[in-house]
């Protein structure tokens, strides 16, 4: 099988990958906020309407104009309550932001860091000012200006610095069922690790301890919550998802077994072979022959 045909990627996402940035307007009653699910990028949204934002282990009930900061390393979901929702969104990759010498300190801001507050209530005057910045970014990304990437990064920095002057919103409530909330956050974080697009970009999180550390939870607490909600341990859920990805890679790519093993976080192919056989009852080579 031609390796170039492994996984189709939409033209929109491919553009984001190549340029590292995209900005667009959310039109009245648009589905863009409701349906856009890719979260492997940073996101800043200026929106007006009613919504509930679930971010890590907290929920924000928002009504009016808000500014939201999404971090690709922190699980979140967005429930639109209003029948109409308007505003702007900009998306940018970590590599795009890292071109700026100031990016490291900005990523540690109260908006992007874990445990921070990613939502701001925005006044009418602030909304008009921020609308102008988003419009400039949208216009600039279509221009032929040689240094437009640097200019757009400056606009992003301006939004962040202006936001640092504002008081973060504390309008949030703990999820009624803590175990359910933790399970949802874990499962979303787990799913976000996939698909594996290249052997050179192996799985970042592989063990229960690594997931617990990322979610700032004790491994036992995470495990108890998952057992309560799903009936399965953290390790079982991780292994099931890894096997599912392994099957897809064996069927739909021409990568050799060693590349697949490395991409899925196994130090040696023999470890992967033993793991796969234990879970499925067959070895990876046998599975590929039977299913391709």
From TrEMBL:
The keyword Cell inner membrane does not apply. InterPro entries: Homeodomain-like_sf (IPR009057), HTH-like (IPR037923), HTH_AraC (IPR018060), Tscrpt_reg_AraC-type_HTH (IPR020449). Pfam families: HTH_18. GO terms for molecular function: DNA-binding transcription factor activity; sequence-specific DNA binding. The keyword DNA-binding applies. Keywords: DNA-binding, Transcription, Transcription regulation. Residues 180-290 form the HTH araC/xylS-type domain. This is AraC family transcriptional regulator. It comes from Euzebyella marina.
